[in-house]
## 1
Amino acid sequence: MNSITGKTKLCGIIGDPIEHTMSPAMHNAAFEALGIDYTYLPFRVRPEELKNAIAGLKALGIVGLNVTIPHKVAVIPLLERIDPLAGKMGAVNTIVNEGGLLTGYNTDAPGFLQALRSKAIEPRGKKIVVIGAGGAAKGISFILAEAGASLVILNRTLSRAEELASQIAQFYQQDLKAMALSEANLKKALDGADVLVNTTSAGIVPDVDLTPVPAGLLKPDIIVFDIVYNPLETRLLREAKAAGARTIDGLDMLVWQGVLAFEKWTGRKAPFDVMKQAAIKALQNEK
Ligand code: ATR
C-alpha cells in the first residue's frame, strides 16, 4: 500500500454492493508502480445517498471517482458536464473533478473497444453479433456502431433488443438488426459474422454451466468475446476454443476501462500490465 501524506490525492469507486470490486487493487497498484501520490478507496453508497455522496465528493476534493451498479444512470443529472458518448449511452462510470466542476465519462464501452483493438481487431465494416440488451449491451452496441460495425442484437426478451436497436438507429446509419435469442436466429446471425459478443449474465458464477450459444454453432472463423470475468473462462469461451475460435475474456475490458479512467485522473499513461496482474490477483483472492 502506498503511504498517505497531506498531499495525497484521493480517487475511489461508489456502488452498492461494492465489496467485490477489483478497481482499488488495479488503481493502487498503478499509482505505486508510477510512484505518484494518489490512493483509491471503495465506498458503499446506497441509492438514497447518491446525491449526498456527489456533494461530498466536491466538498472533500476527491479528484476522481468510478461509478458502478446501481448508480451509472442516476448519477448523470448530478454532474455539471457529460461527455457526448456517455450522454448517448446514458451511462457514466467515471467522474473527473476539476476544481469542483464534475464531468461524467463512460470508459466501459471504450474499454471494450480497446480490448478488441489490442487484439488487432478493427470493428469498421465488420459484422458483429451482440447477445443481450441490458446496460452492458447498450454501451458496447453504441461504441461498435460508432466504430462503424454492423450489428445483430439478440436477446432473450425480444422487445429489449428492439428498443436498443431503435436507440442506436437514432444516431447511426449502418445495418442493425434485433432478434429473439433462439438457436435458429443465432444460426442466421452467425452466418458471415466476424465477432460474437456475450453481454448477458449467462455463465457468471454460480451459473457456470450456462451458455447463451449452443456449442455446435461456434466455428473457427469467428472471434468470441465474453465480457464476463468471473469465471475468466466461461463455458462459452471454453466451447469456442474447442471449436478453434479465437477468444477474448472479460478481464481485458475491465482493465482497459480502468486504464482509461486512470489516464483521465492522472494525465499519465497507465501501466496496463501492472493493472492486469493486480486484477488477476484480486480475482484469485475472491475465491
Ligand atoms: P447488465 O447491465 O449487466 O447488462 P441487465 O441490464 O440486467 O445487466 O441485463 C442482463 C442481460 O442478460 C439481459 O439482456 C438479459 O436478458 P433479458 O433482457 O431477456 O432479461 C440477459 N440474460 C440474463 N440471464 C440470461 C440467460 N440465462 N440467458 C440469456 N440471457 C440472459
Note: The chain has a mean pLDDT of 96.
## 2
Amino acid sequence: MKGVGFFRSIQMKFVLTYVLLILFAMQVISVYFVNSLEEKFVTNFKTSLQERVNLLEYNLREEMLKERNDESNTLEQDIRGILEDFSARDITEVRIVDERSRIIGTSDANNQGVVGQRMTEIAIKRALSAGATENNMFIDDRTGQRVWVLTSPILSNSEVIGAVYLIGDIETVFSQLDDINEILFSAAILALAITAILGITLARTITRPITDMRRQAVALGKGNFSRKVKVYGQDEIGELAVTFNNLTKRLQESQATTEGERRKLSSVLSHMTDGVIATDRRGRVILINEPASKMLNVSRETIISQPIVSLLNLEEDYSFDELLNEQDSVILDYSTHDRPYILRANFSVIQKETGFVNGLITVLHDITEQEKIEIERREFVTNVSHELRTPLTTMRSYLEALADGAWQDPDIAPNFLDVAQTETERMIRLVNDLLQLSKFDSREYNLTKKDTDFIEFFNKIIDRFEMTKSQEVTFRRKLPRYPIYVTIDQDKLTQVIDNIISNALKYSPEGGLVSFKVEEHGDTIQISVSDQGMGIPKKSLERIFERFYRVDRARSRKMGGTGLGLAIAKELIGAHDGHIWAKSVEGKGTTIFFTLPADLSEEDDWV
Ligand code: ATP
Ligand code: MG
C-alpha cells in the first residue's frame, strides 16, 4: 500500500481549513474595520474643517464690518494676516470673496495675483445669492488627487457679505487609511503564517496516532503482529489506539490458534494410515493427504480441484449428489488380473446447521489384505468341510451296509471294515495336518534342531523310499561325497522330504526317473527332487504351496492327497530360514527345490 501524499493527508486538510477560516475572519474584520475607520476619518476631517471655517467666518465678518481710515491696514492686508494664521497642513487653499464675487484674499502665498479677480464657480454664486453652504469631493485634474471643496457664505444679520472657498487636502486622510490597511495586511499575513505553523503542529498531534494506526494496519495486513501503536493521550484517538492494540493482540492470538490447529490437522492427516480427501460443495478436491494420494497413485498437485467422482473412478455408478446421500461405505475394486487391490470409501457430508452442504469428506481404507484373508477363511472352511464330508459319507454308507447285515458276511465285512479304517486314518491324517498348520499360524513351531550331516540324512530317506516303492521307478542321486552340516529338526524335515518324494512318485509314470540333487550355493545348500511326470501348469506353479490346492482335484484325491503337504513343507522350510519353489514343464516333469542355510566354512576343519 502506498503512503498518502502530503497534499491529500488529513494534516493538510486541517491546515487548509484553519488558514481559510482565519483568512475569512480577517477579511470580514478588515472590511468592517476599514469602512468604519474611513467613515470616521472623513467625518472628523470635515467637522474639524467646518469648525475652523466657522471661526474664520467670525474673524472675517469682524474685519469686513470694521471702520477703516487711511492709516489703518486695508481689508486685503487684514484678511491676508488672518489667512496666514489660518493656514494648516490639511488645507490646500482658502479664498475669500466679497459680495460681488471678487477675491479679496487667498492663503496661497505663491498665487497672490488672483486677489482682485472674480470667481466664477457656481457654488460661490449659490453661496452669495442663496447663502447656501456646499461641500463636495473632487478629483483634482492636475494632481489626480482627491480634494474636498467647501463653500460657505459670510453672513451679517442674515445678509451675505461674502463667502469662504476652501480646498481641503482630504488625500491625507486616505493615505493614512492606506497606511492602516498596509498594517492590517501585514498583520494578517503574520497571523496566517503563525496559524499555519500552529495548525501543522496541532494537526500533527491529531494525525500522528492516526498515521501510526494506518501503518500498523498495513503491517497487520502483511501478517506482522509485533508492532504496537503508541498511545499519545486519553482522548478518543487514544482510546482508539488502545482498542487497536487489543485488536491486534486478539488477532495474533486467534491467528496463532488457527495456525496451531492447522498444523495439528495437517500432521494428523499426513500421519494417519487412512486416506482422506476433502471436497468443496461442488465436489472438487480441495485437500488430499499423503496416504490417499499414494492409495490412488496420483500426485497431489494435479488432483487439486478435480471432481472427486472421476478421481475415484465412480462416474459410471455415482453422481456427486448421490455420493452426498450415500450412507454405506463404497467398495472400490481397483484389482488388476495379477494384483488384488480393494479400497473401502466412507463419505461424510460437511453440513451447516441450516442444512447447506459445504463439502464432502472421504476416508479411504485399504482392505485388500482383509478381503484376501476373508476369502481365504471362507475357502478354508469350505475345503475342510469338503475334505471331511467325503470320507464321512463313504464311512456312513459302509457302516450302514454293515449294520444292514453285511457284518455277518465273512467275505465282505473285512473289506468294508478295511475301507472304514482307511477313511478314518485319512481323516486323522487330515486333522493332524490341520492341527500342525494351525500351530504354525500361531508361530508354534516347536523345532528341536540338531547339527546333522545332510547328505547322510538325505540318503537314508531315499533308501527307505527305494526299498518300499511299488512302481518301476529309477532313482538317481547326485549328492556330494562329503558331509554337509546343517542345523535342522530331523523329524520335521523328514516330513517335508517324504511329501516331496511321495508326490514325485505319485505323479511318475511307470519306468520313470526320479533324480535327487544337492548343490552348494554360497552359505546355503539347494536340494532338488525331479520327476518325469505330467508336470504342473504354469499358472498353478505358485499355488501348489497353498493349503488344499491341488492341480487336479479329482485325481489327487484318488491318490489320497488333501493338498496340505506342500503347504506344511513351505511353513517348515520357512521356519528353517530356507525357501521352497517349483519348476515344471507340462508333460515333461516337475522339480521341487528348497534351500537350507549351511555352515560351509566348517567343512575345511573337518576334512
Ligand atoms: P498331501 O501331500 O497332503 O497328501 P497332495 O500331495 O495332493 O496331498 P501337496 O503335496 O501339497 O498335496 O501337493 C499339492 C498339489 O501339487 C498336488 O495335489 C499336485 O496336484 C501338485 N503336485 C505336487 N507335486 C507334484 C509333482 N511332482 N508332479 C505333479 N504335480 C505335483
Ligand atoms: Mg503330497
Note: The longest strand covers residues 146-156.
